[in-house]
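DM between two lab members

TW: hey, do you still have the Sodium/glycine symporter GlyP entry open?
JB: yeah, one sec
JB: this one, 458 aa:
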Amino acid sequence: MENFIEGVERFSAWLWGIPIIALLVISGVYMTFKLGFFQFRYPVYIFQQTFGSIFKKPKGEGTVTPLQALTSALSSTIGAANIVGVPAAIMFGGPGAVFWMWVIALIGMALKFSESVLAVHYREQNEKGEYVGGPMYYMTKGLNMKWLGVWFSFALMIELIPSIMVQGNSVASTVQQSFNIDGLYTGIIIAAIAALVVFGGIKRIGQVTELFVPFMAAIYVGGALIVVIMNIDQVPGVFALIFGHAFQPMSAVGGFAGAAIAETIRWGFARGLYSNEAGLGTAPMAHAAAQTDHPVRQGFWSVIGIVVDTLVVCTATAFVILSTGVWTAEGALDNSSALTTVAFEESLGTFGSLLVTVSLIFFVLSTIIVIIFYGAKQAEFLFNWKIAQAVKVVYLVAIILGAVGAAQTIWSFLDLTLAAILLPNIIAILLLSNKVKELKNEFFRSDKYYLKDIGKTK
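TW: and the structure you got?
JB:
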C-alpha cells in the first residue's frame, strides 16, 4: 500500500509540474490572443466597471451583487497558499519566480474571464429561484456534452472531501500551535460557523464574504505594508532581485540553495496559477449568481479577482519575505512554510506572529465556507436541491475529521482529483472559445454596453 501511495505521489508531482503548467500557459496565451489582449487594452475601463461601480445599483438580473460574487470567489482563492505558498516559490525558484508569477497572472486573466463569461451566459435558475451556473452548465448547454459536465461535477464533489479535510487540519494545527486548543474542538467550532453560513445559500455567503474578505485582506496586506515600510531601504534591492533573476539563474546565498532559470519560471507559473485558480472552474460558480446585464461585465470582476489574489496579496507576501531577508537565513529552505511568520515576528514581534496566525485562520475558514457551496452546487446539478443540503452535512463532518487528522492517506490523491476537474474545464473553454469571443465583441461593439459607458454611441 505504501508503495502504491508513493507511486501516486510521484505521478501527481510530475503531472502538476510541466504538463499541467504548460497546458494552462498555452491555453491562457491562446485565449489572450483570441480575445485581442483585452486585459492589456482596457485596464482602466475594467477598474471603472468593477471597483468604480461598487456604490452603484447593479444592472440586470441575478441573485447576489457583482461585488458579493467576487468576494465569494476570492474566499476560495485567498487562502493558506497566499501565506505559505509564496515563500516556497521563492525558496525553490528564487526571487525571479515573483516576476513569472506576475506574468502568468496577466495571462491567466483571459482564462478566468472566459470561464466566468460562459458561466453567466449559460446559467439558469434553480427551484429556489437562485441563479446557478458553472462549467457543468456550459458543458451541458454550450457543448451539448452532459457527460463531460457530469464528469466535472462528480470529480469536484468527491475532490472537495479531502480538500476540506486538509483545510480543517490546517486551521486546527495552527490553532493548536498558537493557542494550545485541541483539534477536535477547533473542528467542531469551524464546522458550526460554516453551517450557519452555508445553509443560508449564496445570498448569505455573499453577505458574509462582502464584509469578511475585504476586512481580512486589508488586515493582512496592511500588516505586510508596515513590514515593507520598516525595510523601505531594501525595496530597490527587492525589485533588482525580482527582475534581475527572472531571466538568469541565481546562485546559492545563505539558506537559499540556488535555482536554474527553468525552475524559476516553473515555480513562478505554478504559484500564480495555483493561487488564483484560473482555469480550474470553481470561481465561475460564484460569478454565475451575480446581477449583471451582460456576461462580459461580470467577467471583468473575475479579472479583478486575479488582481487582488495574485498581484496584491501574493505580492505583499513576496515583498515581506524578500525585504526582511529571511529567505537567506540558514535553514530557511527546510521550513519555507514558516518564513512569512518569521518575517512578521522579526519585524513586529509577537503581534506580527499573531497577525499571520489569525490571517491564516480566517483565510482558511472563508475558503471552507465557499468550497462547501461549490460542492453543494455539484450535488444540485447531478441530483437535486435536497441532496445538495445533505452533501453540505457530509462536508461539515469532513471538517471535523480533518481537524483530528483522520484519513491523511487520501490527501495524496488530492492533486489527481484536481486534475480530473481542470482538464475537462480547459477542454470546454477551448471548444467554446468562439462563443467567448462573440460575447466579448458584442459587448465592446454594442451601443448598449461599452460604447454607452464611454459616451460613444453611434
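TW: got it. The chain is about 75% helix and 0% strand. Residues 146-179 form the longest helix (34 residues).
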